[in-house]
Amino acid sequence: MIRANHSAVSEFVLLGLSNSWEIQIFLFFFSCLFYVSSLTGNFIIVVTVTSDPYLHSPMYFLLANLSVIDLIFCSIAAPKMICDLFRKKKVISFGGCISQIFFSHAVGGTEMVLLIAMAFDRYVAICKPLHYLTIMSPRICLLILVAAWIIGLIHSSAQLAFVINLPFCGPNILDSFYCDIPRLIKLACTDTYKLEFMITANSGFISLVAFFLLIISYVFLLTTVYKHSSGRSSKAFSTLLAHITVVVLFFGPLIFFYMCPTPSTHIDKFLAIFDAVLTPFLNPVIYTLRNRDMMIAIRKIAMKRVCRQLMRYRKSS
Prior knowledge:
Elements: E1 11-14, H1 21-51, H2 58-73, H3 78-84, E2 91-93, H4 94-127, H5 132-135, H6 138-163, E3 173-174, H7 181-184, H8 193-226, H9 231-259, H10 265-289, H11 292-316
Helix pairs in contact: 1-2, 1-10, 1-11, 2-4, 2-10, 4-6, 4-8, 4-9, 8-9, 9-10
């Protein structure tokens, strides 16, 4: 990730979200609120799943790792965006720009694989319940996690290979609050038509195919669950709806970014904020508020912490 020798640009100027002082104040409090909430919510999920033996199952193992990914993802662009809101000149170094691209695509690719794994987990749980613990064994779950990160890193490295040696010799203004490949390659001092097509095929087409495959698989599972009338099936139905919501929130902005050649700047920025700040916050909300087991486990841990604090207070007094 070292800047190519023939690139004269050492930094990029970010135009940010708005020049209006009132809007900047609103965005500051809005972003801070959801960024802190994202960190808190995902951290609570990780701690809860790790601490409660009842949640040591394949589904919650994947959910905890999804929260770890969201913790990383929401910290890639959001902190700098918040710090830049009141700066007159918003700049990012060439290396910083490349780093943002690398980590966002690595984490995004890993999350894509994890969402597919979570769909497979629900398929096994619903359609092959007697073989669930055999198929989704701890070893298989660990292999899935390792494979997800390897695929994410390979995907990110392949994306960087497209842009790392491009010549950047003049324009250095990005009409955004963070760096991403579709915006960056437009600043290259060369014809990027073929490159844009390759990136669309690499990220946009893959995202689109994965999205439709996941939706089709969840529709199949919903149809299967709908045929049952037990309370367990009702719980499975609710879990599947939560998974579908997360899939739509994750893939929606990605498909828009990479499949729309000339998107509206306002829509583009709105979806970018949604993807960077809101989605990592909504994931824990969706999984905790719609999941009775998670809520019970969180209350247990909270009560234990309160009891420990009371015991310490009594001993000290």
